């Protein structure tokens, strides 16, 4: 079977070149006579893969020496709990900005550990925009400020940060490595791997070293960020194959010209799709144009009764997983780094033809 254009929000499409390389190395990694899945995580071979993944990520995101890079087991949802458990220790509260479903999940989990101050929310307007920092009052005595700069379900994205001395903790699960960021502006960046990094099972966590002093001994051993840093993310057996795949994705990104080159492509892809949606009366996107996500593009059809037909016909045309999240319905095209412009163009061509047939 030939590969199709996969618009899944996660686990998402991986670059074909990465999958081919992994396939070629599957039975015998670099002459070791075993696959990466079969070697000890303490072997020199795997240690070299881990070191390579960290070094490449450091280069790609220009991460300073004052940050630790951790590969944490689990998903970004694991971090929703680990962040307050590690960082709110000794503080009365933590500030959270509420821009959609994933911020809300992070807020609900944090409430189990600390007092959550929701400093801004666009919930009343169905999360169709991102609150302006000038309208947000931060509590400078809080432990940190948590943001979700790309809401994967709602399709909102923002990159401007407030002026504050609070450590900014950002869930970049669906935007990491898709655009340039200034890591030095953040206390913690975390991102589940299964969108722009690799397979599910690991979370990248980039944490400013001074914050590790907050991680208390009462934390479970494998949850303690300071402990993870001390043991180079290997307090116990890490998901070795996921880390190996992440290293291959980082290598591919470097070959593409790095994050700046990806950002230019991502901008062009998102512009083409939003421009097409905006000029059509048949399709619509509800998000304020300045807050629209470059990675996740939700859209609706003027006639909702055509949704099932749209999904069946798009799937048959080799455009996979265009259904919106089950909580919101409609359609959603996730166009992460691995989605080429040709895939976006194929989607636009399909949407045009569909509109002609049914509009
Ligand atoms: N945060 C964001 C922005 C996400 O998009 C997701 C998943 O799609 C999560 C958190 C949760 O990730 P996981 O399922 O890996 O826990």
TrEMBL record:
Compartments, record wording: Cytoplasm
Stated family: Belongs to the class-V pyridoxal-phosphate-dependent aminotransferase family. SerC subfamily.
Query: Its quaternary structure?
Result: Homodimer.
Know the name of this protein? Phosphoserine aminotransferase
List of residues binding L-glutamate:
9, 42
Cofactor(s) listed: pyridoxal 5'-phosphate
Looking up Pfam families in the UniProt record yields: Aminotran_5
Keyword terms of this UniProt record: Amino-acid biosynthesis, Aminotransferase, Cytoplasm, Pyridoxal phosphate, Pyridoxine biosynthesis, Serine biosynthesis, Transferase
Name a single GO biological process. L-serine biosynthetic process
| CDD domains for the chain | PSAT_like (cd00611)
Part of which pathway?
Amino-acid biosynthesis; L-serine biosynthesis; L-serine from 3-phospho-D-glycerate: step 2/3; Cofactor biosynthesis; pyridoxine 5'-phosphate biosynthesis; pyridoxine 5'-phosphate from D-erythrose 4-phosphate: step 3/5
| Annotated SUPFAM superfamilies | PLP-dependent transferases
What InterPro entries does this protein's entry cite? Aminotrans_V_dom (IPR000192), Pser_aminoTfrase (IPR022278), PyrdxlP-dep_Trfase (IPR015424), PyrdxlP-dep_Trfase_major (IPR015421), PyrdxlP-dep_Trfase_small (IPR015422)
- Might you give the EC number(s) for this enzyme? 2.6.1.52
**Which Gene3D superfamilies does the UniProt record give?**
Aspartate Aminotransferase, domain 1, Type I PLP-dependent aspartate aminotransferase-like (Major domain)
User: Could you say which enzyme class this protein belongs to?
Assistant: transferase
Which residues hold pyridoxal 5'-phosphate?
76-77, 102, 152, 171, 194, 236-237
Could you name the Gene Ontology cellular component terms for this entry? cytoplasm
Reported function: Catalyzes the reversible conversion of 3-phosphohydroxypyruvate to phosphoserine and of 3-hydroxy-2-oxo-4-phosphonooxybutanoate to phosphohydroxythreonine.
Q: Which reaction does it catalyse?
A: 4-(phosphooxy)-L-threonine + 2-oxoglutarate = (R)-3-hydroxy-2-oxo-4-phosphooxybutanoate + L-glutamate; O-phospho-L-serine + 2-oxoglutarate = 3-phosphooxypyruvate + L-glutamate
Positions of post-translational N6-(pyridoxal phosphate)lysine modification: 195
Q: Which domain of life is it from?
A: Bacteria
């Amino acid at each position: 079977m030939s590969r199709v254009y996969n618009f899944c929000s996660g686990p998402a499409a991986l670059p074909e070149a990465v999958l081919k390389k992994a396939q070629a190395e599957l039975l015998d990694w670099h002459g070791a006579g075993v696959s990466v899945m079969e070697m000890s995580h303490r072997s020199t071979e795997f240690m070299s893969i881990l070191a390579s993944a960290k070094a490449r990520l450091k280069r790609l995101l220009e991460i300073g020496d004052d940050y630790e890079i951790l590969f944490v087991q689990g998903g970004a949802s694991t971090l929703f709990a680990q962040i307050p458990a590690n960082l709110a220790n000794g503080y009365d509260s933590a500030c959270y900005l509420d821009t959609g479903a994933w911020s809300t999940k992070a807020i609900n989990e944090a409430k189990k550990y600390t007092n959550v101050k929701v400093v801004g929310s666009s919930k009343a307007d169905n999360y169709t925009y991102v609150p302006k920092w000038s309208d947000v009052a931060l509590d400078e005595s809080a432990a940190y400020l948590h943001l979700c700069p790309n809401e994967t379900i709602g399709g909102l994205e923002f990159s401007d940060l407030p002026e504050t001395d609070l450590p900014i903790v950002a869930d970049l699960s669906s935007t990491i490595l898709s655009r340039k960021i200034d890591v030095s502006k953040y206390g913690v960046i975390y991102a589940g791997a299964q969108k722009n990094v690799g397979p599910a099972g690991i979370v990248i966590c980039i944490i400013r070293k001074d914050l590790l002093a907050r991680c208390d001994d009462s934390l479970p051993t494998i949850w303690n960020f300071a402990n993870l840093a001390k043991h180079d993310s290997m307090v116990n057996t890490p998901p070795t194959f996921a880390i190996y795949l992440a290293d291959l994705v980082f290598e591919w990104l470097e070959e593409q010209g790095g994050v700046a080159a990806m950002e230019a492509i991502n901008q062009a892809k998102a512009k083409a799709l939003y421009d097409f949606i905006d000029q059509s009366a048949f399709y619509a996107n509800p998000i304020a144009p300045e807050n629209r996500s470059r990675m996740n593009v939700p859209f609706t059809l003027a006639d909702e009764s055509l949704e099932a037909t749209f999904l069946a016909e798009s799937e048959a045309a080799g455009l996979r997983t265009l259904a919106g999240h089950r909580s919101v319905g409609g359609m959603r095209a996730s166009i992460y780094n691995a989605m080429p412009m040709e895939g976006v163009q194929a989607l636009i061509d399909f949407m045009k033809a569909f509109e002609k047939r049914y509009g």
